[in-house]
Write a structure and sequence with these properties.
Number of domains: 2
CATH superfamily of the largest domain: Tetrapyrrole methylase, C-terminal domain
Strand content: 25-35%
Largest sheet: 5 strands, parallel
CATH class of the largest domain: Alpha Beta
Strand order of the largest sheet: 3-2-4-1-5
Helix content: 25-40%
CATH architecture of the largest domain: 2-Layer Sandwich
Number of helices: 8
């Protein structure tokens, strides 16, 4: 059977693995992934053949998984969160024409936007945009345009990759852009290490967010004009009480 599962492990420590994902991993002969993600499932699936590649080796990882599946093994490619949200699903499909006999199946997972929103309350109850501040794949000029358009349209925003050692001021720069159209009092929040032992959440305003200390393990949420704080939780009404 020439099959490649592309599986989302959910955020954090792997406790949010879905039943479908667990079943696909159990049926796989080989599990391929970034070293950190493989470590999350090693305790439960250590009896499987586990193959890893380091960071920045995404293409090699997908090619390895596809080649193994083409050789007749049932293979699982694991990603954190959801494989179709900044994960490996797209790249596997882009490379797929080289191994057309392999069957691909994506198994969704809980992405950080959903995992972090649950910690903060209910900030994503209405229309929202998900934007990565990493300019590794996308020019900063494009990111700026997307931030500005989302702010002007009054979307709730969820920001991935808000900061790193080389991009320490990117969240502050993003906040300056958003403040062109949003009030400084706009309720916001961020969650660090979603689903892990050291998980922490902070609720604050957009004005204060500009100076917040965040990192690559942080997911940021910026409300719209209707978002409010209720009992310390971030909530964006959908309008049920006004209907």
């Amino acid at each position: 059977m020439r099959k490649l599962w592309i599986i989302g492990l959910g955020p954090g420590g792997g406790e949010d693995l879905t039943g479908k994902a667990r079943k696909a991993l159990a049926e796989s002969d080989v599990i391929v992934g970034y070293t950190v993600y493989i470590d999350l499932i090693r305790g439960e699936f250590g009896h499987k053949e586990l193959l890893t590649t380091p960071m920045r080796k995404e293409r090699e990882r997908c090619e390895m998984a596809l080649a193994l599946a083409d050789g007749g093994k049932t293979v699982a490619m694991v990603c954190s969160g959801d494989p179709g949200v900044y994960g490996m699903a797209g790249l596997c499909y882009e490379l797929w024409p080289q191994w057309p006999e392999v069957e691909l199946q994506v198994v969704p997972g809980i992405t950080a936007a959903c995992g972090g929103a649950a910690v903060l309350g209910a900030p994503l109850m209405h229309d929202f945009c998900l934007i990565s501040l990493s300019d590794l794949m996308t020019p900063w000029e494009t990111i700026e345009k997307r931030l500005r358009a989302a702010a002007e349209a009054d979307f709730v925003l969820c920001l991935y990759n808000p900061s790193s050692h080389k991009r320490k001021d990117y969240l502050a720069r993003a906040c300056d852009i958003l403040l062109e159209a949003k009030s400084a009092d706009t309720p916001c929040g961020y969650v660090r290490e979603i689903g892990r032992e050291r998980e922490s959440a902070t609720v604050l305003t957009l004005g204060a967010l500009k100076n917040a200390q965040v990192d690559m393990f942080t997911t940021v949420f910026i409300g719209n004009s209707q978002t409010k704080v209720i009992g310390g939780k971030l909530v964006t009404p959908r309008g049920y009480l006004q209907r």
